[in-house]
Amino acid sequence: MAYETVLIEDAQGVGVRTITLNRPQALNAFNETLKDELIDALKAAARDKGVRCLVVTGAGRAFCAGQDLKDRTDSADGAGPGSFSASLRDKYNPMIMTIRTMEKPVIAAVNGVAAGAGCSLALACDLRVVADKATFIQAFVKIGLVPDSGATFLLPRLVGLGKAFELAVTGDPLDAGSALTLGLANSVVPGEALLTATMDLATRLAQAPTRAIGLTKRAMNRALLVDLASALDYEADMQEIAGRGPDFAEGVSAFMEKRQPRFTGQ
Ligand code: LHQ
Which DSSP letter does residue 22 get? Predict the structure, then answer.
């Protein structure tokens, strides 16, 4: 599929793919094309075994401003907003689920403001490397809406219930430094260093045992919802799978031979 609103770049030979939201004139707000193309690009990255770490970022000065509030093409007659629930169920929710269920690490390189569903997109990623000028805004309340695209689930888990509620009901921007303090940002770097810092982390993760990382993500996703006994049981199942894979054998051999492991990700 040839894309109009996302850019795809594979770093040669290192297993890192970057998806760049590319509607900078609209702060990368989601119109229908961007939603469709992002879902397609995410699914392709999830399927491609050569991709062992995925980076999502935005072109220009914003990460993503959420739903394009000027777009009128999402209703049947083109005259106004269509069904909110259908838009979420058909487009946003599959986008979030594809990221959360993809068994490889996904890093958001948050280059600028992440608002509304654009904030949810950043929250859905496994890690956030954040430019010092970037902000996170639960913009929904400013237009009389409820946090969506996973924000009610992910934000309290990332920053705690009290802070999540405050951010959701005030719509106040959270700056990068505060995001780091709260654990929402994994690191904060100067804007000009963002892509280099992200690629360093992504390259490292792409050389890691991808299967084990995928199973870790699966187990942590599930552990958010279950009791300790069930989480312990599931961890044991995941460990059985990881322990039977070639990267475990390679990891142990490398340890014995006092050398760096060469993980295949299988
Ligand atoms: C935009 C947008 C935008 C279009 C900036 N759309 N043009 C899901 C399901 C169904 C329906 C509803 O919603 C959802 C989920 C959601 O995402 S709801 C939340 C939608 N997003 C927002 O409410 C955020 C709206 N934008 C803003 O609050 C500000 O633009 C932020 C804080 C993101 C950035 O502020 P500034 O840095 O001051 O930039 P700006 O406001 O001057 O924007 C620059 C341009 O980008 C401007 O266009 P113009 O032609 O005047 O230069 C804006 O109109 C445009 N833009 N966000 N979401």
Answer: -
Query: Strand pairing partners for 178?
Result: none
Whole-number Å distance between alpha carbons of 72 and 228: 46
What per-residue string of b and e applies to 169-207 under the rule 16 or more CB within 10 Å gives b?
eebebbbbebbbebebbbebbeeeebbebbbebbeebbb
Residue pLDDT tens, the chain, 266 long:
799 999 999 998 999 999 999 999 999 999 999 999 999 999 999 999 999 999 999 999 999 999 999 996 655 555 556 789 999 999 999 999 999 999 999 999 999 999 999 999 999 999 999 999 999 999 999 999 999 999 999 999 999 999 999 999 999 999 999 999 999 999 999 999 999 999 999 999 999 999 999 999 999 999 999 998 998 898 889 989 998 999 999 998 999 999 999 999 99
Task: Count other C-beta atoms under 10 Å from residue 239's C-beta.
Answer: 14
b/e sequence 60-78, b meaning 16+ C-beta within 10 Å: bebbbbbbbeebeebeeee
Number of H helices, E strands in the chain: 11, 10
Q: Give the pTM.
A: 0.94
**Pocket of ligand 1 from Cβ distances under 6 Å:** 26-27, 29, 65-70, 84, 87-88, 92, 113, 115-117, 137, 139-140, 142-143, 145, 148
CA dihedral 229, 232, 237, 242 (to 10 degrees): 170
- Report how far ligand 1's centroid is from the alpha carbon of 66 (Å): 7
Write the residue with the smallest CA distance to atom 47 of ligand 1.
Answer: 26
Report residue 166 CA to chain centroid gap: 22
